[in-house]
Design brief:
Number of domains: 3
CATH topology of the largest domain: Receptor-associated Protein
CATH class of the largest domain: Mainly Alpha
Structural class: mainly alpha
CATH architecture of the largest domain: Up-down Bundle
Order of helices and strands: EEHEHHHHHHHHHHHHHHHH
Strand order of the largest sheet: 2-1-3
Radius of gyration: 29 Å
CATH superfamily of the largest domain: Type II secretion system (T2SS), domain F
Shape: flat
Largest sheet: 3 strands, antiparallel
Number of helices: 17
Length: 403
Amino acid sequence: MESYRYKVVDTEGNIHHGTMDAKSEGEVLALLNARNQYAIEVEPAAKKSVFTKDINIGIGNKITVANIVIFCRQIYALIKSGMPVDRALTTLQAQTESKKMKEEIIKLNAQIKQGSVMSAAMAEQPNAFPEILVRAVEAGEKTGNLDESFLRMATYFHKTLVLQRKIRGAMAYPIIVLVLVFGISLFLMVVVIPEFATFLEAAGGELPGLTVFYMNMSNWLVDYWYIFVGVTVGIVLLVRWWLKTPAGGAQFDSFKLSIPKANKLVAQILTARFSRSFSSMVSSGITIIEGLEIAATSMNNKFAERKVLEIIGEVKKGSPVSEQLRTIEVFPEMMLSMLSVGEETGSIDEMLVKVADYYEEEAEAAIDKLLSMIPPFMIIIIAALVGSIVLAMYLPVLDAMVT
C-alpha cells in the first residue's frame, strides 16, 4: 500500500487536508466519497525533490472574469441538455483547468447535495461568484429559466471581459514607457552624471545653470537615496490607501469624469457597463429597483454609483428611471432618450442591449484612437526628460568649443 495526501471539501463547504494509506488514487477517492467528502486533490505523499515537485507561480489560483465566462457557458449547455445541477457541476469540476475555480465548484456542489439551492450556495462564495451572477441565477430559479440566466450572464461577462482587456491594453503601453523613462533618467542621474561632474569640475570654469541643477540633484540622490526611496514608497502607499477609501475613490472617479477629452471616453465606458448589467437584470426578471442597485455597482465608479443609488428613492415613488438618471448628469443624452423610449414601449431590456452594444463600440473606437495618439506623446516626454539631462551634461562642452 502507498500513502496519499488529499485535500477535500465536506458537505458544509469546509476544506480539509490529510493522508491515507491505499492501493491506488481510485481507492482514496472511493473512501472519501463514502464519507461524503469530495476530493479536490489527491497525490502520493512521498516527498518530491525541488527538481520534481510542482512549481506554483500563481496561475489558476485566482478566479478571473474569463473563468466566470467559461463556467456560465458550460453550465448553460449542461443544464439545457437536461442534466441535473449537481451532476452538471460534477462534470464541470472534472473539466475545469483553474485549480481555484475547481475548488469553488466542488464546494458549491457539496452545498447543493446538502439541499441548498444554487443561488444560495453561490451567495456563500462571494469571492468566486459576483452578486450580479447570484441575482440572475436566483431569478432564473424562480422563473424556471435557469439555463437562460446562465446564457445571459455568459454574454454579459464576455462583453465585460472584451472591454476590460481593451482598457488594460490602452493603459499598459504608457505605463511601461513611463517606467522605462523613469529608470533611464534615474540611471543617468546616479551613474552617468557623477562621472561627467568629475570631469567638468576638473576642467574648471563656470557651469550653466541647467548643468548645476542636475549635478546638485544627482549628488542629493547619491547621498540621500534612502530618503528618495522612502518618500516614493510612502507616496505610492498613501495614494493607494486614499483610493481605497470611499471618499478618496469617489473623488478620483469624479475627477476622471471632469478631465477634458478623456471624460467622454469614461462616460462611454460607464454607460456601456451600466446598460449591459441593467438590461441583464431586467431580462432575468429582477425588479427595476434591484436592477438599478446591481447596475450601479457594476460600473466600477464610486462617484457614478453613489449618484445612481441616490435616485432610487424617487424611482420607488413612480418617477421614470430615464428622468431621474438625467438629473445626475453622468450618462449621455442618447442613452437617456433610448431608455425613455424603452420605458414607454415596455422594452427596457431590449433597448438597453442596443445602448450597450453602441457604446461598447464607441468606447473601443475611442480607445483605438487614443492608442494611435500615445506614441508621439510618449516621444515628447522622453525627449523632455532624458534630452534635458543629456543637454545639461554637454552644455559646458559646447560652451568651451564656442569660446
